Amino acid sequence: MFMHSKLWNKNFTLAFVGMVISAAAGVGLNIALSVVVFEQTQSTTLAAVLGALSMIPHFVLPLVVGPVIDRRNPLKVLVRNEVVLALLFFAAAALIYAYGFSYILFMLFSIAISAFGVVSNLASASVLPQIMARENYVRGNAILNVIYPLCSVAVAPLAMKLFDHYGMPLILASYGIASLVDAALESRIAAKFE
Predict the structure, then answer these.
(1) Using CA atoms, how far apart are residues 40 and 116, in angstroms rounded to an integer?
(2) How far apart are CA 190 and CA 87, in angstroms?
(3) What are phi and psi of 46, to 5 degrees?
(4) Phi then psi for 171, rounded to 5 degrees?
(5) pLDDT averaged over every residue in the chain
(6) How far is residue 188's CA from residue 165's CA, in Å, rounded to a whole number?
(7) Of residues 129 and 80, which shows the higher confidence score?
(8) Cα torsion 121, 102, 56, 31: sign
(9) Is the pLDDT assigned to residue 169 strictly greater than 80?
(10) Which residues contact 153 (CB under 8 A, 6 or more apart)?
(11) What is the pTM of this model?
(12) What does the pLDDT read at residue 162?
């Protein structure tokens, strides 16, 4: 008798919640950064340049980082990466609170966040197949592939509302907290990685 394994086990649920938190933070941050740059500079060109520069890690890093992740435990890479992202968010929040807007700071921060986001995506892509049974791949991936579009629709207005009322430093600090929560959840995934 063939038994089906459950998709929504502890590991998948932790990964799902972690991805929701990560996606919500990523979507909200990208929108908030573009809006802040446009608001401060009144230049669509500078906002577009910021967006374009933040895409560079998506083209370059997978070729370099993918093989490195494959040789390590992808879950440990993912958790450490989320902790580093949290520290980066807190540092950026403190710098912006202390010194105000700086286009160069925003540009560097945007590129760094994008780079760490690529590492998180690659590590997640390596973790997920190893925490799902083979017969659940299609259902699991279908569920996980809906997260980013849903977060894009739901989080964008919320991020703008938070930005209008509280400003960028508080948004960055809240993303730092979200990254720590994400790391804490993902560190509880119990699976052996080949």
Answers:
(1) 26
(2) 25
(3) -65, -35
(4) -60, -45
(5) 86
(6) 35
(7) 80
(8) positive
(9) yes
(10) none
(11) 0.87
(12) 80
